[in-house]
Amino acid sequence: MKKLLAIFTAMLLSCTFIFSQETIKISQIDAVSKGIKFDKKKDKFKNVTVITGKKLTGKNPIAIDLSKYANKEVEIKFYCDIKIEDSKNDVNEIIWMINDFNEGFPEIAKKKVKTGEWTRMTGSKIVHLTGPRQLYIPTNSIDLENSKIFLKDFEVTITGESLTGKPVKLKNWLEVEPLKNSLKSHFDYFGIAVGWNDTFAVPNIQKGVAYHANSITMGNEFKPDFIFRWSLPRQFKDFKGENGKTVKVPSYTLKGFETCADILEATKKNNLEMRGHVLVWHSQTPDWFFTENYDYDSELVDKDTMNARMEWYIKTVLEFVANWEKENNNGKHIIKHWDVVNEACADGATDQKWLREDSNWFKVYGSEEFIVNAFRYANKYAPKDVSLVYNDYSSYNGSTRSANGGGKTNAILKVVDAIQAAPDARIDAVGMQSHVQVEYPPVSGNVNDSFEAAVKKFIAKGVNVQITELDIANAKKLYSPMKLKAKYKEYFEMFIRNKKTANKKGIEGVTIWGVTDDGTWLNSQSQYKGHTQYPLLFTENYECKPAFFGIVEAAE
Predict the structure, then answer these.
(1) In the annotation, is 540 catalytic?
(2) Interior/surface letters 310-337, b for 16+ CB within 10 angstroms, e for the rest
(3) Which of 221, 325, 343, 490 is catalytic?
(4) In the prediction, which pLDDT does 81 show?
(5) Is the pTM of this model over 0.70?
(6) Residue 343 annotated as catalytic
């Protein structure tokens, strides 16, 4: 969405996060009465903890003390085998939870356990312990007076920042299983956005990106500004549009195509595919493209002229890519998807005003006609097996009463309707940019502004969804690696729930907007001044952050 190569307005802060990991064994359970015995034998198993309900005393007697982690944010992973002997109940619902009222009594593991059978319980959760807390079984869920509980292979692993335990060394991005492998059964592709000179032209970065992703998006290099190379046209030829209008267009090969060819070659070399970003956009398109005689100081052209210019530009870019693929890749597509139109909808969209009116495109057309025509021309010149996408930010904003003005979801739905109503136009997917925050929007839930609600609305229109520019900002909050991990996990669990299948439309791919935290565009944004953002999966040293493993866990 934004300029990946933006000049930072503030110096990035260097920050090192030291993670520690500790393991708690069952021997640390509170044993305040004769009701708990350790290291017993049961069913040929050794080291079994036996809990006799009628002998227990005290509050929360079946509990693990977590007080040393008070006021810390930790990930708790839980594992044990449990057996219950109960003279009254055939089944008991066992819950291991934390006695933290402020956090809503987080449940770590929950399962129905049949009397007389060993049952394995596992669970994990990232929690903020607001004080001295315990991991415990609430005794009101069991008929303790008539029960015995047996526990074996009990283990709780606590991971967090600045704990007292053994430091956790972050793994290099080439030392782990490729992320694309974890996601290959869920999505058609997994992508990472890159720049050219600062990232993807560097062989080691190419190697790492290709190791984890099977798709890339160029942050800038396929946008009109870059393809024109910020140069006014000086030599012209005639181009006759399908509307019969003849216009003057540049007669030379567009200067940016040289870099585009280098990028396509590097993409091929690394066995990657690409999302083309972007053909029609109000930003990073030169103002002279819309004026008489390509003169900055002249008036805007009329619609007929602009239609012909737009058609020529789309045709020129798509034919350049097709010819390169034919000459260098046996005609096999490297660019599999195109963002045809980007960010045409208004931030505060209403039913009456739903398009961005500060755009030169809108100023020329005064309606959605330019969007429809862009998809008509793209459909005319793009291969039929290349998907055509409308891409926008805040696409989850479905309420006119929301904090930032709302209604963009409905505006995008209007775009889809308009394109689908045109007989010679084609739209295959909505691109949801997804520059989100840890605390907003809600990922799921029965609310207008939940991300998942918007996904379902787009799918209901008969188009796929692509998550095109995902990053998760800590915004003005203190960066929490564990919160970021939890949020990435939550998003990918939702993405997977709504994935495309053979029988239904859905989410077909996800692209992360950037490689490492030190290169994120978010730190150039005025709304985050004074608050360094750490929104991505890898550190500046190409180490896998906890957020990386949040995605892996979601995919399991």
Answers:
(1) no
(2) bbbbbbbbbebbbebbeeeeeeebbbbb
(3) 343
(4) 95
(5) yes
(6) yes
